[in-house]
Amino acid sequence: MAEHTTHKRRMGRRTFLAATGAIGAGAAIEGALAARASAATFGYTDDGTNYVISTGADLVLKVSHVNGDLTSLVYRGTEYEGYNGQNSHVESGLGASTVTISQSGTTILVTVVHGTLIHYYAARSGENNVYLWTNKADASFTATRYIVRVKPGLFPNTDPDAWDATTDTVIEAADIYRKPDGTTRAKHYSRLRVMDYDHIGWSTGSVGLWMVRSNHEKASGGPFYRSLLRHHNDGGAGLYEILHYGENQTEAERFGLQGPYVIAFTDGGAPASSLYARNIDTSWADGLGLSGWTGASGRGRVAGVGIAGRDTTYPYTVGLANPAAQYWGTADAGSGYFSIPKVLPGTYTLTVYKGELGVHTGSVTVAAGATTTLNTITVANDPSTASAIWRIGDWNGTPAGFKNADLMTYAHPSDTRASAWTGNFVVGSSAASSFPAYIWKDVNNGPAVYFKLTAAQAAAAHTLRIGVTTNYINGRPQVTVNDWSSSVPSPPAEPGTRTLTVGSYRGNNVTFTYAVPASAWLTDTSQYNVLRIYVASGSSGTGYLSPGVSVDAIDLLA
């Protein structure tokens, strides 16, 4: 029988528990996370304020038995934890909590209970890792995140999410900075979607500190969600696991147990791929008694034999979502085959994405221990297949190809590297890169598209389409064509927070259509018709915080 002990904090009591037996070779962790030889003994003590846990490798950590904060991370004798008097914790710190510790064989588990929220830390013998789970049962906390706070000056970082408050100037909401050279920095500027990364962190070359993300099954926003992942400034640094945050959220919050996500120390290299959410073996957690835990045997898989009707110039992603969970997988570039493992049982909406644009939806039911196999899916809702007189950009759910689009995932629109946000488009001679990715009411309202029509085209009504990936404060496009004006469309359901200035164009992908009558066109076919796109909104703002939209594609249908 594996040793199992539990410690509840009582004033004046001090205990020590150590693992029985030597750490065998089977406890070694692959790759850069391999445990180093150490004289430390796996176990824990109580220093009167914290539970002190030695992993038996090079890591010693402390967890407060008052509030569940992670108060110390000592790796090879160096303290990495904390800045400005703050510790690492769930949300912004839970406050007074019930904190207990237990040991089962080669695993030590700390349980933190605060109201309806339960948080767990686990340390395993011989590993330089901390495993974490968060079980949030309701909306009593507004966000779901864990932040690892790191002492300043320990890691180099000149990336877009790093700044120096002693030399840089705040330009927006106390969290976006302009450096003396005119470039911009913010904790929001990660460049990455959730599906783009397995881990985030820093390395000195000899020491690496990483946050290895969870599978995000209880997160919100899908595979393309963008949020802050880390920050680094003169006062300290932070690594984040963001599951639901008050910014750029496109769907309702999900509740339940999320994890494990992992704080990992290495010899400087990336964490081993065996810790990545798609690979991690969590069978050792099956007997820990985690509230809400579902092991591998209680999960199923979805597999699709292929996707027909694809535009092979784009990657395709298949997403599963219901109110309780979300998952995704990448379709094979050749066949469209996809496999999504480790799915909780239930019925899900299945969405096929071309780029980031949903082009097919269906329903799939998953059972524990079983694979649901789907026949070839045929894409029938790709707007790019519609015959168009002209088209600017392509329908892919992103502003890719338009002016400044890529820069906006890691910089503010005022950044000195951005091209002028003005720019008109002449059909037949202009590149999409000459048309702005974003349009704001107070910055570049009314960019023009110039185009000619044949006599036959000018004699008929046509449908104009404008794809918007997201907006800010109810911005939506109202258009004029020569002397004709459209009505103002209703505002779409989009995130109600900052979007365009915090590194994200990701919203709900809304297509606005306008029935343009034949009387709107010029009858002289040698003359250019002029389309102008204005941002309409009943909300007010100035500059880059005025109502705005992010453009996916614009076309005039034949």
Describe the overall structure.
- This protein has 558 residues and is mainly beta.
- It is built from one helix and 40 strands.
- The strands form nine sheets. The chain has an eight-stranded antiparallel β-sheet with strand order 1-9-10-11-12-21-18-17, with no helix packed on it. Strands 2-3-4-5-6-7 form a six-stranded antiparallel β-sheet, with no helix packed on it.
- The longest helix is centred in the last third of the chain and has 4 residues.
- The protein is globular, with a radius of gyration of 26 Å.
- The N and C termini lie far apart (74 Å).
- About 5% of the residues have low confidence.
Set down the secondary structure blueprint.
Layout: E1 4-8, E2 16-18, E3 43-46, E4 50-54, E5 59-64, E6 70-75, E7 78-79, E8 89-90, E9 98-104, E10 107-114, E11 117-124, E12 129-136, E13 144-150, E14 169-172, E15 176-178, E16 184-186, E17 199-203, E18 208-212, E19 230-233, E20 236-244, E21 256-266, E22 300-304, E23 307-308, E24 316-321, E25 326-330, E26 338-343, E27 346-354, E28 357-366, E29 371-374, E30 377-378, E31 388-393, E32 425-426, E33 438-440, E34 448-451, H1 455-458, E35 462-472, E36 476-481, E37 484-485, E38 510-516, E39 529-536, E40 548-557
Parallel strand pairs: 22-29, 23-30, 32-34
Antiparallel strand pairs: 1-9, 2-3, 3-4, 4-5, 5-6, 6-7, 8-13, 9-10, 10-11, 11-12, 12-21, 13-20, 14-15, 15-16, 17-18, 18-21, 19-20, 22-26, 24-25, 24-27, 27-28, 31-40, 33-40, 34-39, 35-38, 35-40, 36-37, 36-39
